[in-house]
Amino acid sequence: MNNLALEQLPDGLRDQVERAAAILREGGLVAYPTDTVYGLGADVYHDEAVKKVFTVKQRPLGLPLPVLLSDRGQLHHIAISTPLAEKLMSRYWPGGLTIIMYKSETFKSIVLAGGVKIGVRIPDHPVPRALSLLTGRPLVGTSANLHDAITALTADEVRRQLGDSVDFILDAGDCPGGIESTIVDVTLDPPRILRSGIIPDHEIEAFWQNSIGQA
Question: CA distances (Å), 105 to each of 26, 82, 101, in order?
Fold first, then answer.
C-alpha cells in the first residue's frame, strides 16, 4: 500500500513526501498542498502536535480541526457515517466536500475541541493521501494560514504567514482548486451547509434533496 501511494505521486515529490511522513510520525508539523488550498498537517492522535497546530495558526482552542483521510477505510475509526453521508461521499470524494458527522465512540483527539462532531474529507490530491497512507494516520487538514487570514495557495504563501513555525513545507506548486472545501453538516435535520466553498451550495443542496427523496 505504501509503495502504491508513492507510485501515484508526480515525479520529484517522492523524496519530499517520505521526509514529510517521517516528520509527521515524530510529532512534527507539515504544510502540504491539497486539491483546494495548502493544508497544515499533524497526526490527529499526537496531542502535542495537534496543540502546536492551534498555536501556530493562532486558532481558538474551541474550534475543532478538520481531518483528511487517505481512503474511506479510515472513516469508521473516527466517525459514525449515515446513509446521506455515504451518498455524499460516493458523489464528492475524493474532492472538495468536508462532511461533518458524529465522532465514533472510541475516537479521542484534541482536534475535536471537546465536541462530539468531526469534519472529514478525502482530498483529490495524491500528496495528502500518500502522507496519510505512509503515516497510517488521518491528518489534521486545516488550512495553512493564520486564523482568519487569507488562505495559502503556494508554499511561498505558507512561508510568509507561518515562517519557521512549521517543521517542513512540502512544495508541490500551486493548489489547483484555489478555494477552500465546502462544509456540510449531516448531523442536522435538514442538513446544513456551514461554509460555502469549491463545490457550489446549490449543487450540494440539489444532490441531497434528490437523495432524501429517493430514500
Answer: 26, 15, 12
Q: Which helix (H) or strand (E) holds 172?
A: none
Amino acid at 197: G
Query: How many distinct structural domains can be found in the chain?
Result: 1
Report the 10 Å Cβ neighbour count for 97. Answer: 23
Report the CATH number at residue 7: 3.90.870.10
pLDDT tens, position by position, 56-107: 999 999 999 999 999 999 999 999 999 999 999 999 999 999 999 999 999 9
- The span from the CA of 179 to the CA of 173, in Å, is 15
Spatial separation of the C-alpha atoms in residues 208 and 150, rounded to whole Å: 30
Which residue type is seen at 36?
T
Non-local (6+) Cβ contacts of 130 within 8 A are 5, 6, 8, 9, 17, 21, 70
Question: Confidence class of residue 210 from pLDDT cuts 50, 70 and 90?
Answer: confident
3-32: average pLDDT: 87
Domain hosting 16: range is 2-214
Residues in the chain: 215
Is this structure's pTM higher than 0.85? yes
